[in-house]
Every structure is written in structure tokens, then in C-alpha cells.
Amino acid sequence: MNSTSSFEKPTYSLKQLTQYFLKLGTLGFGGPIALVGYMHRDLVEEKKWISESGYQEGLTLAQVAPGPLAAQLSFYLGYIHYGVLGSALVGIAFVLPSFLIVVALGWAYTLYGGLTWMQSVFYGVGASVIGIIAISAYKLTLKTVGTDWLLWSIYVVNAVSTVITESERVELILLGGLIVWLVKSPPKNWFKNNRLNSILAFPFLPFLGTIPTATPSLLGQIFVFFATAGSFVFGSGLAIVPFLYGGVVKDFQWLDAQQFLDAVAVAMITPGPVVITTGFIGFLVAGLPGACVAAIAMFIPCYLLTIIPAPYFKKHGKNRSISAFVNGVTVAATGAIAGAVIVLGQQSLKDIPTILIGLVTLGVLWQFGKKIPEPLIVAIAAILGLIIYPLVS
Asked: Does 248 map to a domain?
């Protein structure tokens, strides 16, 4: 399939679009919010390849369906003019650079992780990442919760649950979406008249099977777990952090808490989507095959949940019931991220120097925001780790 008849004719080639996303995946730092901002600036404002309405439809769909925000928007933008083929090529181009980077870092981590210099780097970086996640959680909270008592209730319940159980409760996140939907936009005649009832069912259908109790091959476990994770990442890629912590550290015990925090740190210092940390985790668990399986499993659900509803979403995506459900799920996921800050902070902020690094990171981002790029902050934290860790270990 080279084009879709439901969208206007393109003014650019598929090769040009693929090259753009290859470059963005290689140089695009700053996390999901920054990445979707780059796409709007470059593709809508400057190049004018994508219309404002097309971009907004893609952004809305990326928030409706589970999946990492930036990756799903890239899938949709590739689909607009070049269909399934365009979506696939754009997605691969966007994800591949950061995947190769995390595999290389995973190899180095596995080879040199026991050395003092590597431990020193992640001593500082891990503390800094807590500050980055904390400010991200704060911004997401302001953006999604507002002053609505119902949304605050859902937010607090998910935050507390994450702290207590040390894992993200998917059922509570989906329940948050259902509650807001029922309260803010009751069904009434919607079930009878709306043909897109199935869109709200999408989050429930794929990969709902839990990890088998019988022990399959390790790669099979990795695939099922990460495919499940990929089906429940709403909005920011950071939403996957508490979910992964519960499975990778607590349930399967593939990594210890410090290794997991190091994996999150790797995601922060590499370009492209944050959820590419799954490739790093997969490498630590099962080498290159594990990295490939984890990354593929993570992106398959969000890819399918982009291209399947895309033709219908253009017409029906503004439905109030869908918007209400998405709002509730987003708030619940944000609460889980806030809870994850506390859980991960307990693992990483273990002495006065790490507490200070975390607080300084938080203060710098609070005061200067986008003026200071996060990779620079992480690099400075790594240098501090190299200096401080040998003195306190």
C-alpha cells in the first residue's frame, strides 16, 4: 500500500519522511513532549508536509490508544499519506537509532558494569534521573489533573497504590478511564448510535493474557511481558516505568532495583522514545536476542493500535466519550508515575550526595526548564558520580 485515499495527496516522498524520522530518532533528545513538539515544528510549521488537522488527529489518537506518545504519533504521520508501508518504515527509522545505542550501552554495561567507573557514573546519573522524573510527573500533573476533584481522586489512588505495591496496577488505570467516562459522558444513546464502540475496547483486547505460570523459554517470557507492557503505556513513555519495575524487578527478578534504575537512566541519556529502555533491559536479561524481542514486543501493540483505527478515527476521533475515557486513563497513569518517583527514589537517593544531586536536578529544571537540556544535566551528574562515588564507597 503506497497511499490512502482518505487523505490529501502528499507534497513529499516516503523517502524524505523516512529520512526525517531517522534524523529525529538519532538527534531527538528531551523525551516524548519534546519529540512531538519537534514533529509539529518541522513537519507542520516549516516543511508543511502535514496539515494542522492531520497532526492534531494523530496526537489525539496517540493519547487515546495505549502506546508511547511520540512513537505512536510517528506511526500515524507515516500512515497519513503512505498507509501501512509508510507507517512501518517511519516507525523503524524513528526507533532504530536509539535501539542500536541502547544495545551498545547494554553491551558496555554487561562487560564493564562491575568496574568502579561504571558504578560511579550510574551513582550520579541514577540520582539525577529521579529529579528528571519528578519534574516530569509534576508537569504532567498540572496538565492533566487541574482542579477536578474526581480526577484528583483517581490520581491519588493510583499514586498511593504504586507506592504500596511498588508496581503499576493496570486495572486501576483502566478503571480510572471508565469512571471518568461514565461520570463525564454517560453512555445514554451512545452505545446505539456510535459505530466506534470498538475503539474503547481496543485497550482491553490485545495482550491481556498474564505471564504464564508455567515456565516457557526466557525469550517467550520476555515477549509476552513487554507486549503486555506496550499495551498499557498511555501518553508519556514514563508511564511504563512503574509497570516495568513491578514485572522486571519484583515478579520475574530479572534485574535488581539498581540495574533497573540504570536502565531508566540509559533511556534518559539516549535520543528517541523513552520506552527504548526495554531494549537495554532485554539485553541485560538475554543478550542481543532479548533486546530484539523486548523492543519488537513493546512496539507491536502500539503500531497495531495506530494503523487499525486510523481510517475511522479521522471521522469519529472527537467523540466526547472517547475523550473522557482517555482523560481518566491519562490522569491515572500520571498518578502511577508520581508514585514511581517515590519508589525509585528510595532505591537511588541512598545518601546525602545522591539526595543533593536529585534535589539540584529538580531545582535546575524547575528554574530553567527547557533552557538546559536534560542530557547535559545527566552528563554533569555522571561527572559528579565519578568524583564522589570513590569517596563514599
From this structure: yes
